[in-house]
User: Fold this.
Amino acid sequence: MKILVTVKRVPDPESTLKVNAEGTGFVKDNLKWVVNPFDEIAIEEGLRIKEKVSGTEVVLVSIGDKAAQEQLRTGLAMGADRAVLVLSDAELDPLAVAKVLRKVIETEKPDLVLMGKQAIDDDSNCAGQMLAELLGWPQATFASELKLAADAKSAQVTREVDGGLETLEVPLPAVVTADLRLNEPRYASLPGIMKARKKELKEIPIAELGVDTTPRVKTVKLATPPKRQAGRKVESVQELVRVLHEEAKVI
Amino acid sequence: MGNVLLIAEHSHGKFPKTTLVGLTAAKELASKTGGTCIGLVLGQGVDALAGELAEYGVNVVAVDAAPLAHYVADAYTSAIAEIVAQKGVEVVVGTATAMGKDLLPRVAARLDAGIAPDITGIVDARTFQRPMWAGNLIATIAVESTPRVVSVRSTAFDAAAKGGAKGTVEKASPAVTGTTKFISFNETKSDRPVLTEASIVCSGGRGLKSGENFTTYLEPLCDALGAAMGASRAAVDAGFVPNDLQVGQTGKVVAPTLYVAVGISGAIQHLAGMKDSKVIVAINKDEEAPIFQVADYGLVADLFKAVPELTEEIKKLKHA
Assistant:
């Protein structure tokens, strides 16, 4: 089978982002960039299926500038087979991302699309659901377990939802988005890194796809919220209970 | 002059607080679009729920159909899209719950609409505020399409109250299509308050060391305070407690009157889910833990000694 996994280049989650002087975006210099952590989980899940189902190909797709090659190489080093980079200098909103991915999928024709449930930069949590709808495919988001049927025609997906765990069955092709506990992603091995350099990484200028990426959503302003101030230390449990009761009046 | 449609999520025959928060935002939006706010109840056997929603002073559309008995994204999207077209809807509003996060982007794609996910503020009928980067940036975004879709963060608005002229209830039978099959729901059973509704939340982190210690140390504290129990991602990843207790960037966002963080270091991903709480208490043996930078009251102590003591002191106070 063929599995397509999406990869987004994002700042390292431990970075502190600074808003630029115009208040329209964040300062991108001197940041460390990584594969969106949820996408790493999606890549890992694709590789685990590849290890179980012989003849499986795992194809990575990213949308971004040339620098996103680095994150695709990381995924190739983990064990993916090849990668596609849709070159775009403009930031796309989630619907435009989904439209570009649909176009790539029309060519690639995967049986399964694996994505991270959200990108940790804009925290939108939208592209997977939108892509599924545009393709007319079923979706299973926030997956914590993915079981392929023996005939690989459908999958049972356990999802992390409010109040517990839900299990859905979706016929393939389908879009599945990964939650934190789906798996623990492997590190790329040294031989993996060597091999990744020779794997195919195809670049497609976004204009060649002929997709209307007119944004539906525009960022007007970006700001840093007021910081919460640290309070004070109390010396004992007794003092804590007293201040909560008498001062804060919350118990 | 477009209308605002609230997707009224329900569970066990009730509207959770998150839905009533969404209703407040939907009414506010309707005042800005100049249209009316309509509540949409989807499911099977939803007559009573539809009637209840009308008591909040909104007109209600009820879709009662067997394929909607359990929520699944594709079937719900097909039904909602038809109602949107019928009712002249300018803005579709839902909640940033697990269901809303799964459903609303799909609805937006069906409508070729822009989406403002997880909003914390309404500037005007198409401009919203939302947190990004684990709440460390606040974006003001303009959604330029009509219709448009919005999901509402449950801590950002007050819950709507019943009142006003009772609305009408109208039944609709849109076509429902989809291929997703609901198999099962393994619900976490608890007698404690729901995390997103509780006025007090006590959360445990890696410092508790095991699931048993949640039972031995944290649960009695929750019960003494009448609190909901939460957890950090680290505690959930380690398998100490179920996933639906996770508070943070990718879990639940809470803003109770009192938040007690026990053995939680305070990674930004956790702070994103609780930093709007009114009063924050942190108990941690590491005085350098970042959680103390946001805590109103910090106690540097061994939680295995401090928490049972705290539980006893609270019981004494309640019986005094």
Observations:
- Chain B touches chain A through 90 residues (CB under 8 Å).
